[in-house]
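Interim report, section 4.2 (structural modelling).
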Amino acid sequence: MVEITDVVCSLCGCVCDDIVVEVEDNKVTKVKKGACAVGKSKLMGHGRIEEPAIRENGNLKDCSYDEAIKKAAEILAASRRPLLYGWSSTVCEADKVGVELAEEIGAVIDNTASVCHGPSVLAIQDVGLPSCTLGEVKNRADLIIYWGANPAAAHANHMKRYSYISKGYWTEEGKKNKKLVVVDVRRTPTAKMADVFLQIEQGKDYLVFSALRALLYGYDDVVPEEVGGISKKDLLETVKMMKEAKFGIIFFGMGVTHTRGRHNNIVNAIETTRAAHTHTKFSIMPMRGHYNVAGINQVCTWETGFPFAVDLSRGYAWYNPGEISATDLLIRRECDAALIIASDPGAHFPGESIRHLSKIPVIQIDPFPNPTTEFADVVIPAAISGVEAEGNVYRMDNIPIRLRKLVDTEYLADEEIMKSILEEVRAIKEKEGE
Amino acid sequence: MAEGELLIRNGVVYDPINGVKGEKKDICIRDGKVVEEVKNPKVIDAEGRVVMPGGVDIHSHIAGAKVNAGRLFRPEDGRKGVKARTKVCRSESGYSVPNTFATGYRYARMGYTFVMEAAMPPLAARHTHEEMVDIPILDNAALPLIDNNWMTMEYVKSGDMDLLAAYIAWMMKATKGYGVKVVNPGGTEAWAWAKNCDLNDEVPYFDVTPAEIVKNLAVANEKFEMPHSIHVHGNMLGHPGNYEVTTSTYDLVKGIKPYRDRPAMHATHTQFHAYGGTRWGDFESKAGAIADYINKNEHVSIDLGSIILGDTTTMTADGPMEYSLYQITGRKWTNHDVELETGSGITPFLYSGKSPVNTIQWAIGQELALLVKDPWKLALTTDHPNAGPFIGYPIIISMLMSKRRRDESAEDMHKVIFDRAEYSSIDREYDLNEIAIITRGMAAKTLGLHEHGKGHLGVGADGDVAVYDMSPEETDAGKIQKAFLNTKYTIKGGEVVVKDGEVVATPAGKTYFVTPECDDKLTDEMLVKLKDKFEHYYSVNFNNYPVQDAYVPNPYEIKAPWRS
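Predicted structure of the assembly:
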């Protein structure tokens, strides 16, 4: 038995890196410290895709890695409008090969931000993002606002490691001297811990941000007695807390990005942060979901100039979310082949785009089976990043951390698979005399 | 490095480090290095053309967290520079915040082969390295920020210079960094509470002043044989009347004996620190006062931070400065404070020749170059992309070489240039030898890279050569600018990477980093304090913090022994 410390979790955007595990017979046998229940389950391992497979007559038939990679390359090389999608639950090293492949075959490359914090990216492109690292929050924040986010369920260690419950330099008494405000449509487990819970009406986030902004700028008279289900009294109390805080932070989640108003909500959230910043230190941060969704945004940006929804069919990067994001492309039935890696559009895309996806050749690269596997034509199992493969990831605050390899595996890492596909595609193109 | 032999024949060579000032000369390269002679070389005919060592940029923001945050939030800038991939090149995008590939290609087209990334947040050092790996052709290095760090301030307060040195040593190794970077010392920590610091203000909660931080870091830095001095972006950047803060900052290292023949401080993007007046309304150039100081003293070197007119993306670890700028323009603003270490801000900015303030800034950048007598004391930079993108260097070169061009530009700008700047009264024109000094020689020497084959063409130097498509007699400023934008040939490590302004090969660059050698006992004592910081205050574990070797696939290590 070997004990491994400083293990980095490859589950959510928290990227906890203080985990201790035990390894015996090349298997993680115990998670001793650090991980939440979901992270623990990932580290311990569960049902995986065992063999590469190619669909024949409607059924997946096991094959060798070489056969699967060759088939994948053939599909991509023959495609006139390929889509390369996913990238958020793998390491940056694999993402880089993905961008290179997209250039090579003139593909659209898009990532899960497209259906997640894509609206946040659009808002940041409009107004910027006054933010900080999670350690800043831990050491300084005395007011924490979760808006449309429920970390108690979705980012289980977030409050403990970084925000409300954590202890830092100016916050050594933990939550005792902190205030927690939760804004949500229902009383979530996180809301139950809050000093102030603002139960907002569905879809009224934009209005409530506007009201807070008006109050922060001193225009109390324009705010009506009730906004989005919240009384002016509660809004005034919240604003008082914001002004009196030494260091405030808004964490926002899907409840804001994917409700009516979408990216406009985030623009308003950021403008509210700016308004608060005229009184005291205030920051804002999106609660990123997948452990490396921030990383694919980083890689895609430094390599193409743009964070998601990038079309390379012209030979240079063309960025236009809404036109060439994965769901739009599929709804228009524009793409004729797709490579899906480290994600599950089969479970998360709108029905209409899944319908088209299920009709075109789909290559799936993933350690685990998911609804996308049900219609994938080539399935390539990958090593589990953070357990069986190492590599770089970016935490939700864009801090880069290296995943550790804990056990050996026969499975190929995402990066190796991608490189093999790229090589094979190039060989096909060369043969065809391009 | 390319194997084989190359002969660059009959060029007019400017190699200031070796005292070569426009001599007709052959350059011989074998296996990537300059040699005395070659036997069966490939021949490049440089007949009558200007030949210089590969350019060395001492200060440019090309890779890492804030550069990428700049790209991410400015798709409108990304759209400006798009260029399709070729058989050799990846796709390009961006103007002030080009993607990594474009960064490499554009520098190489200008004849540059080494660029120093000017600010690496230690906690995000992996990010800087990841991007540098993706910048083709260029050799590179990065300066970790060491000044607003709690460890630094605590040692400054306690006066433990040896322990501060041990911390510097550990941080260089942990970040694979090149030298000590200082950005708004104390002020960036204060910004974590939305405050700022002047040079002699007390940093909130830390009981030290920015002046003490700068001085002590300079002392601690010189405890090692560090190739580079401390690299300082001082307090009050961009504020009217800041020139006295600037010279007071310079004064701090007077009397500190550097380990070798370089100053004890490199003061960067000096244009932003040479302001007179009391507010924007009476804003004026104090380039003369700064130049006077530099002329009279030997303990400070500078780079220009010269303005390029047009739209750009400003970015710095000086968080409060970016906030002030955003308040002036009302444009988008990104901020990113980094726990226990530093911060950063980013906002777009338009430098307009119609604006009196921007016009004076334009004048100051060039006045500094023209008023500092000894070109070995200054390097050409635009603090890319803060004062403008690096592809504007040829504009500045043509201005410095042509009084006529400067006069023409002054006519197009706000008339304040004639009243509140010396610009139009300066007749000096740079010659090509001086241009070679401020674009390669000085930077290589100040960074200590000349001892590692950079910035010159002596025997044993790297085979990095720029052949410019111009005669040394050329006086037409437009032609000079054109020649410096796209080389006839750029050769990197003996391999032709640019031919007739087109990139033809994209070898990977090397990453230079410095390993200060520190006594184990001292390091252990320092680590007790540092580990406590990780245990209680950092959000990343100690053992996950140092940059792993995997991030630096082409390493070039420079050891810096402790000075006995």
